Structures are given as structure tokens and as C-alpha cells.
Amino acid sequence: MEFVLFGEVQLRVAGQPLDIGTPRQQAVLAVLAADAGRPVSLETIINRLWGDDPPAEARNVLYSHISRIRRLFKEIADSSGETAKLPRRTAGYVLEIDPGDVDLLRFERLVERGNDQLATDTDRAAALAEAVFGRPGTPLAGIPGDWADQVRATWHRRRLDAAVHWGELELRLGHQAAVIDALSGLAGEYPLAEPLEVLLMRALYAAGRPAEALDRYDVVRKRLAEALGTDPGPELRALHRAMLRDELPTAPRAAPVTTPAQLPPGTPGFVGRETALRHLDWVSDEQFPATRIVVLSGTAGVGKTALAVHWAHTVAAGFPDGQLYVNLRGFDPTGSPVDPAEALRGFLEALDVPGGRLPTTLEAQAGRYRSLLAHRRVLIVLDNARDAEQVRLLLPGAPGSVVVVTSRDRLAGLVVAGAHPLTVDLLDDAEARVMLRRRIGAGRVAAEPEAVDEIIGLCARLPLALAVAAARAATHPAFSLAALAGQLRDARGVLDELSGTDPATDARAVFSWSYLRLDPAAARLFRLFGLHSGPDVGTRAAASLAGVPEGKARRLLSELAHAHLITEHAPGRYTVHDLLRAYATELVDETESAADREEAAHRVLGHYAHTAYHADGFLDPRLEVPPELTPLPPGAESERITDRRQAVAWFEAEHRVLLLAAHAGAAFDTRVWDLARSMQRFLAMQGHWHDESDVLTVAAAAARRLGDERKQAFAHLHLAGTHVRFGRHTEADDDLRTALTLSRAAGDVVGQAYAHRQFAWLLDRQGAVTDALTHAEQALELFRAAEHRAGQATALNAVGWFRTLLGEHTVAIGYCQQALDLQTQLADQMGAAQSWHSIGYAHKQLGAPARALTCYRTALDLAHRNGNLMTEARLHIEIANLHHELGDIESARSGWQQAHDILAHLAHPDADEVRTRLSEVHSE
Length: 924
Fold this sequence. Notes:
It is a single chain. By secondary structure, this protein is mainly alpha-helical. The chain is 63% helix and 5% strand. The protein has a five-stranded parallel beta sheet with strand order 7-8-9-6-10, sandwiched between helices. A three-stranded antiparallel beta sheet has the order 1-2-3, with helices on one face. Strands 11-13-12 form a three-stranded antiparallel beta sheet.
């Protein structure tokens, strides 16, 4: 099913147009299709159809048309199976179809793709070419009225902007001929559009046709003089002068692009693997028609990761576009492998796609990832994969990059599809001796060759087991290697009944030998590592896990690291090999009682929940009394967070650990909810909206099991916020209604007020400003009834904002000033920044630019101090626009450049629009 709004309004099924009724009914369908997926209120439809003078029977006429459209949809569904629905919701009628089925909305999507700064220039140019040149006719050609005129005017403006952007991209790609051919015709449609003429002149000049470029300038100058009585603008004049002097102007500077470098440190003392390294070099050097993929498979502890990381470091310079790495934890004994979707989001963020700009669907995210890698040379290491399905989503779609996958499984599905298999075997005797020499010294190895041979045999030539044995020898230099071999032989004898063909069984004997010689407190901490599901653990978290003071935990961790049972991969952060974690899990289940295990889990969850609570307080001032936390269990201790910088750093370091902790299970519902609530603000502010949605879903389930309506309402309220950000307005509406119902049932007036405030935001995003104002006023009334001052300030500013959008600028300033007074008293700097912005906007509409500038600058200072980059960029743009209107070109250029740098850093699509604006004023 296709809704055609270009030219005559049509509805096509299987490519054939259907009879959609009278011109008025066509107009009704066009109004709904132009906002497909979004509610359109009855008043809005009437206004778009009849303007300010609707007939008395307008509502009845509209009801009849909607009824006929619904019948038409039913006939289509019965005959073809194609479906479209037109339900009426609170905010209005919603045409429930894929917006991509509407050609006008496809135009918008193509323009957005063309503005995606992280896509390649080739892909962006292709999208813009389809948008500009692939649509015959103008929108709503047969529909009269102000609304249709406005749609057409907006389309012409966006099409012209897209054409200019397309031309710039094509010139950057060196396609001067394409620009000359396409824009020569388009310039006839827009004869007074100077940006098109600038591009044509640049293309002609770059194509070696400078005389034609200069002639073009004379033609344009005469045309402007005849039509408008003006001379060419400053950019065209500057280009003309530069051509005469053979000095073209330079473009505004581009923001730096981050090159990911995610490889973990290599293994000290890496030895051998010469054949495998040569094979990896061959795959990397050869030119294959598809992505080059190598699967390193082998038993646990055989050194697959060490090999992959060592080789990756040696060839990293050959991948100038960066190196991506993820530990997929496919065989993690806690049963928490990394979800491919989570790994994909991590890679996108490493490639400079902020969480807030991730596509909504997994398929779209994978498409963005493949597009970003299509013309890059990136090395990708996918470590510890469980199966082929965990990997497929992370594979590039074009040649250029190299992927190394490690797994205990052979991943036959990938090999069948073209991956290169490489089995990682045990070390041979010579390689094992070299490894021991590098770890314990050549002299000791040479002095006791028989003992060395016995140690190598008892360790089954498994690198992980050899590393543990070497650590024992290195920490006891006075012990003979023969004595150590004897101890290891005794440990191996105890476990003979478990021996088999799997070298991991022999490794278990080595682990046991090392574990049994630990201090009892260190041995207990090692066992408790089997209860921790995160990828790593910090010192104080480990102290809480064991219920010991931090100083003692630090000593125990040091002992475990020296025994090579854990690894300090970053200062104060420790990780455990999955084979050792499995051993620790086995030990904790055998040794600790169920009650002791549960107490340890409560301690570490309490540590995370209480630290998150304190860190959250630094992200935004405590403007209300938060819910009471479940007390810390005895023996647990939270981190000491003293400022905002430290709070953000802690959340970033513990991000994945906290996500896994939030899934601890129903036995820990109270602590899970505490943790989820304290994580929510960080995840929202950092744009980790997929993670926020996941955590809030878990929190909602925990709150339901606890029977706590207020906690359920909180989860649904903020789940609605994630839906709004993703454009899932129906789901947002459902969650907000649930939150409102639960808050009413709990007698929570403040919760009701926040639900109405969120409803206002949702409706604002849908363009229903009048309805948004109604909800903002309801929120204000409820906040006042509850004497909730922070909420009152937020609602007052919202009411003021919606008032100024409706043209009531003086009234709006009064509301926003009340908000600002409260926010100043409460030291709510970010709230004050929003209010200053609203006041500045209203003053601008009232024709008081000087006052507006003062307000905007105050808001900018507050946003900058609080690290809100998106608000800061918006304010730079507002200030630059005002400067330009006042004739201060230099200040405008400076403001736009600052906004461009921030938006480019955030990979926000508006960066291109600001860049275009910079180009326009470059020579003013």
C-alpha cells in the first residue's frame, strides 16, 4: 500500500491507484497521511481543510469522510491483505501505517539520511539525489488552502537545501560533471536561488571551464538585477572575486573524528604461535571479495584471546580507521553472555554514534553499523563467542575490514559462509619452555630441566595452567621447581578420577594446587567471585562481596593477582578468566551455604545501589526527597563520591556491571529497584536509552512483585520517556496512562503531576501544542496542591513555553519568570537554563533582541557549567541567529562554529545545517 501525496493525492495497492472519493475526502486522507503514525486532533484537521472559516457542519462532514476512509481500508484488507487502521485516540486520529509508505515522508527520511554525518559521502549523496530528483511534481498539487501552501513551501525549501547539500557532497567526491548536468536544470526551477549558482560556478571551475563559470556569474547578476533590483549576494561575489584571482575560499573547519582503539593490553611474555600468526597475516594481506573473517577455535585456556590480541596489536597500524573489541562472554559460567544487540550499540558509540542518536530498531542499528564500516578499514576482534548467531550481527557487510572471532566452538556456520577456520592447539614442549623461561627466569629453567618437563606435562601444555604454575614459582623463588612439581603432582593425583581428553581437566588440578595454598580469606574471596556476574569488579565492590574492610580486600586481591587467579586489567579493577570463574562457581556452591551466598549477593548489590544513589545526587541536585533506600547490609560499603566528575566516571566504569546487576532476580527485588531508580538519570543523560528501557522494564516487574504502586508508576513514567525519544508515541501514551492510574491508586499527587508533565512533552513532540498546554496546566495545579516547589518550577516553565508557542509572549514571560524565581531559590541550574531560554525566546518574538541575547547568554553559561552539550549547542545557534539578524556577522560566525563543533562531536544531523549556514556567511 502506498500513499501518494506528490501530484494528485492517490492511494495505490499493488501499484494500482484506487478510487478514494471526492476531492475533500482526498484532502482528509492527505492530512492524515502527512502525519502518519502521529495523532492529528479534530481541530487540526478542520483547520487544515477549511482554515479560519470552517462551515458549521464541519465536524459531521469530517466524521463522514473518516467513516468512508475506514470502510475503504477494510475493503483493501479483505481483497489484498494490505492493512491500514485509523483509530481515534486521546490526542486525535492516528493513521496507523509505516510512515515509509507515504512518499512525502519518504522524502523526509531520505533527507535525514543525507544529513547523517556518520554515513559515507557516497551514501549520503545517493539518498539526497533520490530525494531531490526522484519525486515528480509538487506535494498536494490539487489541494487548496493555507496548510497545503505551507506544506508545498516547506518542501520547496527543504528540496532546495537538499539539492545544495547534494551538490556539495558530489563536488567533494570529485563528480563535477554530475553537478553541472543536474543543477543546470534545477537552476531553471529556482532561478533566484544563489546557492545553486554558487555550486554550478564551483563545478564549472573545478571541471576546467573557468570561462563558463565567469559567464554564469554575469547571467545571474543580470537576472537578479532585472527580477529584484539587487546585486548578487556576498558569497557569490566573493566566489567571483576568488575565481578572478584563482583563490577559492576555504570551507569551515570540520570537527575531529574519533578513531576507536579498543584492544585490551597484550599478554606479557607471549610466545610461539608462529604458524597461526602467519595465517592471520595472510588473511589480512590478501584481497577477498567479501569481509575477511578468521575463526580461532580451541579448548578453554588454550590462549585464543592472547593470540588474537597479540596479533591485533602487531597489525593495528594497518587499520587506520581503528580497532573494535568486545568480550562476548559466550561461555561465562554465570550464564550472562553479552547480547549481540548490546555489543552492536557499544560499537556504534565507539564509532561516534551517541546513544541518543541510535536508530530505534535492531535492524536499523545493524544497517547503520554496516554503512559506517563500508568504506573503512577496521580491525574487529569478537572474543569468546558462544555460537555463530552471537556474531552475525557484528560482521561488516563489505570488504575492507578484518574480523577475528575466538570461540571454544568451531562456528561451522561462519566457516560454511566463507570464514577462515584456524584451530589453536596446545603449546608444544619448546613453546612451553620459552614461556616458563620468560616468566620465572632462564637460570631456574636451565637448572632443573626434568622438573620443568614434569610441570609442563602436569599443566597439559595449556597456557592458562602454565601461567598459574609460573606465578606460583615466581612468588616463591627459594622453592625448587622439583618441590613445586611434587606439589602439583599431588594435586593432580587427587583429581585423577576426573581426567579425560579435555585439557581443562588438567587445568583444574593446577587451579586447585594454587587455590589450596591461598590464605583462607583470599581463598574465600576467590570463591565469591563465582557469584559476581559482571565483566570485572572494583576494589570496594570486592570488599562488599566478601564483607571485609577495603584495605583488607586490597591485600586479598593482590594475593589472588600474584597467584594469577585474577587479573588487574586496569588500576583497581579485576577480571577473572571464564575457566577460573567456572572453578570459583563450583567452589562457592560446594563450600558456602545458601544463606552465605545470598548474604554476599545482597552485600554487593547493596554496594552498587547505594553508590549509584550517591552518584545520582551529583548529576542533578536533590530537588525532592527521594524514596528511602533499603539499608546497606552489614559488611557492605559504598564508594565515596565527592563531585559530579567522579560520579560520571563511576557510572561509566560500572555501566555493564550495573546492567547485569539489575537482572539479579526476584529474590533481590528491593535492591534491584533501588539500583534501577538511581541508574535512570545517568542512562537518560548519556543517551543510553536502550539500556534505560531495559533497566526500567526490569524495575517495573520488580515493583509489581513488591506490590508497590508508586514504584511501578515511576518505572512506567520514565519508560514513557524512552518511547517518546524513539518516536514510539502509542507505547508512550500507554505507559503514561498506566503511570497516571497507578499514581492515583497510590494517592501520589506528585506522581500524577509528573505524568501530566510527561504527557505535555509527548503532545509537544506530536505538534499538539494546545493539548500539551492543558496537561502542563494540570501538572502545575497538582504540584501546587502537593506544595512541590521543584515540580512547580518545571510546570511553570512548561506552561510559559507553550504559551509563547501559541503567541502569548507577554503572558509566557510571566510564567517563566515565576519558574526562574523558584529555580534560583532551589539552586536548580539546569531548570534555570531552560527557563532563561524560554524567556529569551519570548523576548525575541516580542522584537526585543537585546533582552533575548542577555537571556540566551545566561542560559548558555548555566548549560555549559552543567555539561549539557545539546542545550549548549542549541543556545549557540539561537545567539548566532540573533547576531546575524543584528548585522554582527563575525559574532554569528563564531557562534555557529561553536554549535557546529558540539553537534559534530555528538554526530547530530543538525551539524550539517549549521555547516551550510557557515558556508553561506563565510565571506560576509
